[in-house]
Amino acid sequence: MFGRADRIRHVMPETRADLSGFAALLTLGLLAAGGAASAPGGLLLGVPSLTAAAAIAALLSWLWWRGHRAGAPWTALLLVPSGLLFAARYWPPALSGPPLWALFMAGVVSLLASRRAVPSPRVFFVVVLAVYLAAAARVQSVVGPEGDEPHYLMVADSLWRDHDVDLTRDFAEGRYRAFHPEALEPHFRIRGREGEIYSIHAVGLSLLVLPAYVLGGYAGASFFMALLAALLALQIRRTVLAYSGRAALASGVGWIVALSPPLLHYAGLLFTEVPAALIVAVGLRKARDAAALTPGQALLWGASLAFLPWLNVRYALFPVLLLGYALAKGLRSRQSLAAVAPLLASAAAIGLYHFVLYGFFDPRRVYGRTREFALGTLLEGLPGLFLDQEFGIFIYSPAFAIALLGLGRLWKVSRRDAVLLGGLVLVVVLTAGAWDMWRGGFNPPARFLVPVLPVLALGLAFGLSARLPAPTALLIGWGLWTGLAGAVNPALVHRDRDGTAPFFRAQAGAEEWTRLLPGFVLADPDRFRLAAVWVVVLGLAATAKRTPTPGRVALAVSVLLAGIATASTLSKARTEGRDAVRVLGREALQVPAFVRTGSASGRWGPPVLGWGPLYEPHRFPDGATVGARLRLPPGSYDLHVDRDPRIPAGDLPELSLRVEGPQGQTRLSAFEPEGPNRWAARFHVDPGEDGGLRLAIRGGGAFALAGIELRTSTKSPASGPNPR
Asked: Where exactly are the structural domains of the chain?
């Protein structure tokens, strides 16, 4: 009898602790789904939709039912930053709204890791393929082929229609309009022997997607690339299993890599990096077991490596390194000849191909004689590859910081493996970092690091601890958030340089993360100071390897908050009103006053603008910005301007609204007096214009700006739009 009572008393505290952890995750999910905005004296916390709340509750209920509870007690401490939102006046504003998904995901990862259940590779592949096909469909409908993608499609189309790679006629007839409706300039620097236009891009990817393109056009090629990405995720899982011998570790690393950037963001995109990474993943595993290869297997292995330079000439060193690794692993002479034969044949064929088209054998000459690689570029390119807010791999998937640590640990286990894996990463990093196009162009983050994802996955596997530390869970959770959110809205990550990252402009709370993260593309003056902050934070998180306890979780959260506070203090960037409008027009709770509002307004003042408070029209011929890159849903809005009564005002100015983009028009609205020191102007946002708006004051007389307030309006604009 007493033994049963003791067991009940022992179980009840555990159940209460589990419930507290699940309640914390539920709160985090609701706060993340609701969003947040800055407000005078505090924050506005948006109310989540019933659909979002039901989905979060369903996920947590499933985890509870499946018995994923071992990590629940300490997950309650993830709520500490959110608790500060309610208790403090304005702290920490950056860790509010959508970024809280990272903490929510960290808690979910910890719960999943509490049970050593390992889904079969078949289940893994089916789930990942379904996610990637959905991501590819989103890319097709939201973005379409951009950057280098339409040029690969152009070559595939020419191969099918004309049975050649001459694009002169294709561009003249505008054949690209079948998949790219806007004007497209050819990518070439040197014409062929008789003036033909040949794409500067290697022909390998176009050959690879040709059957899918013939069957389904651009959509078929995109879905085929999603299939290759899913196969890559599966091969990464198998490679980690081959090197570690631990099924649970291989499964965990496979899920992390598959659902985080950069791989998830490249599902369905027509770039050479995913097939190159697939060849590297298979090549690594075959080279590791080189002594057991038959001559036929060695021939096939060598043929796959021989295809790498046909994808891009910068992959030419990969076969050399992998072949050297295989020789060190005991590749026999007969098998060596079988592997080398297709490599030599491929090299000769590439030279002959370029000689026939251009009259020279060296494939590098198609890029012209302009010097593109310089060691001086490494000063920006090297940190940019890892820490740039638009393209850095650590910014979107910080768990890969553990990979560098893991490659160092691998040195103690196998120096041969460490030399090869480190050599592959070093070749890619130095090549990309020394190129002035280190960001890759119009593409998602970390494009040039995708080919070595199998290597980084192995480093991650060797860097992870047996038990999942809280800082590691936070790093993984951040990557899952950016990966899934970017797949839902690929336009936020499939972009060219914007100065600040579109993803962190849109997926932000009461303080935009673009202020806190370094920018190396356009040489942000704060970039090195901010980079130093996050190098320290990532270093502390990556080296953590102890079992999570309440104290260690609290320490991890404290380090994160300290990094946010330090970056916010060092940054001089201004968000120009975006922080105030993230829950505009929605039901929200103002904290710490705990006042509920049915339709939130946005308020900001001169400190977040790049000028002020004095407005003089002759100093702003294009208008003085009062809101920039604002994401406003379609509808009518009232903008209220408060002026300082101590300075007399002249004539009323006009409100200028301009939509971002080359086709954006400027519309003007008249200000009308609303009181002795307040003016108001009404404007309308049309469907399709919610991606970024600039509001500016122009004309009129001088005055001193005291504040801005933006509200949704139930009335139509006083007058129609006036395009300029």
From this structure: 2-117, 121-374+403-438, 601-713
pLDDT digits 0-9 by tens, 372-403: 778 888 999 999 999 999 999 999 999 999 99
Token pair recorded at residue 560:
């994160």
The pLDDT of residue 723: 40
- What's the CATH architecture for 601-713? Sandwich (2.60)
Supply the pTM of this predicted model.
Answer: 0.92
> What phi, psi does 134 have (nearest 5°)?
-65, -40
Tokens coding 445: 């983050």
Angle between helices 453-463 and 415-433 in degrees, nearest 10: 130
Strands 595-597 and 703-713: unpaired
Question: Which of 159, 246, 257 shows the shortest CA–CA distance to 210?
Answer: 159
By CB atoms closer than 10 A (0-12, 13-18, 19+), residue 499 is: middle
Sheet containing strand 654-659, strands side by side: 624-630, 693-698, 654-659, 666-670
What is the average pLDDT value for the chain, to the nearest integer? 89
The closest alpha carbon to 505, from 586, 578, 570, belongs to 578
Contact 719, 670 (CB under 8 A): yes
Q: What is the pLDDT of residues 119-145, one digit of tens each?
A: 888 999 999 999 999 999 999 999 999
What's 71's DSSP letter? T
**Band of the pLDDT at 9, cuts 50, 70, 90?**
very low
Identify the three-state secondary structure at position 238: helix
Dist. CA 8–CA 571, nearest whole Å:
54
**Strand order across the beta sheet in which 42-46 lies:** 36-39, 42-46, 588-591, 595-597
| Residue written as token pair 């993230």 | 582
| CA–CA gap between residue 321 and residue 335 (Å, rounded) | 16
CA 76 – CA 55 distance, rounded (Å)? 20
Residue 117 has pLDDT above 80, yes or no: no
Asked if 387 contacts 529 with a C-beta cutoff of 8 angstroms, the reply is no
* pLDDT recorded at residue 412: 83
**pLDDT tens column, 518-542:** 999 988 899 999 999 999 999 998 8
